[in-house]
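Deliverable D4.2, example record:
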Amino acid sequence: MTRRKVQQLADGDTLDEVFLVGEKQLRANRNGVLYLQMELRDRSGSISARMWNATEQQFNSFEEGDLLRIKGKVQLYQGSLQVIFNAFEAAHAAQFNLDDFIPQTEQDVSRLFDRLRGPLLRLTNPHLRAVVECFLMDDGFVHGFCQAPAGVRQHHAYRGGLLEHVVTMLESADRVLPLYPEVNRELLLMGIFLHDIGKTRELSYDRVFGYTDEGQLVGHVVMGIEMLNDKVAKVPELTGEPFPQELLLRLKHMIVSHHGAYEFGAPRLPMTPEAIALHYIDNLDAKVHSFTRDIREDRGGTSAWTPYNQNTQRRLFKGLREGSEPVTE
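Output generated by the structure prediction step:
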C-alpha cells in the first residue's frame, strides 16, 4: 500500500502512517500535565504533531531521526494543519527507503553541479580559477556542497539546497551584471560560490537537519574563511606565484559581509560593489524561495492567505479562489 505523504494530508484525515521524527519536546500545560510535541517529516514536507497526557518514558523511547508509526487524526488549528495522535510505535528503518523521508531538491544534482562548474571554470583570472580547481578537486568538499541544505528551516532547507541556491545566484548575477558594468563579474561570481561554503561543515544533514558542534561554536562565516585560507595556500602549486593579497581580502570581505547588516550576523557591512551585489542577490533568492514555498505548502483550508509567519512577521496572499475566506484576526 502506498504511504500518504505529508503534502497529501487534509483536515479530518484519520492517520496510521510512518514518518521521520524531527525536533521533539516534552512540555507541560498550565495544569502541569505533560504532552509530547514533535515535528513529523517526509520528503514532501513537515507537519506539527501533538500527543496529550504523555509520559517521560514515552518521550525517551525514541530519538530525533527515528521512524515512527503514528496513529491519530489531522486537524486544522489556527490556519495550519497539525496531527493529534494517541499512539505510536517504532518502525524499522530497514523496511523503508530513507530517501522517502528526507527533504531534498527536486532538481537533478548532477546537472546542477554542471551549471556550477561551467561558469566557475571559465573564469579568466588564473588565481580565482585556481581556487575553484582546489575546491572542486576536494571530493569531500564536493560531496558536502552537493548534499548540504542552505539552512535548517528558513530557505532551501533540504538536501542539495545549498547547491541549488548558489546556482540560482550565479545565474541571477549573470542576468543583472550587464546593468552594472563597474561591478567585477569574476569577483562577484567567486564571492557567490564562496559565501556559504562553511555550511558544508556548519550543518548536519544525515537524517535530521541541525548544527554540528563546530557549527554552533564557530559558525559558517568563520569556517568559510578558514576553508578559503586552506585552498589559497595551495594555489601557488597550480599558478607558480603567490595569491594576490588584495584579491584575497576582497574575497574574504564578501564572505564576512554577505549577511548585509550587523543584526543579521554580519561581522562587517558590505564595503565594495561586489559585496553589496552579493548580499542583495543572496537575499533576493532566499526571500523569494521562502515566500513561494510557504504559499505552495500551505494547505490551510479555503483562506486566500497563509497563516501568520512569525519569522517574516506577515501573512502571504495566495490569491482569491472560489470559496476563499477573508483574513480574520
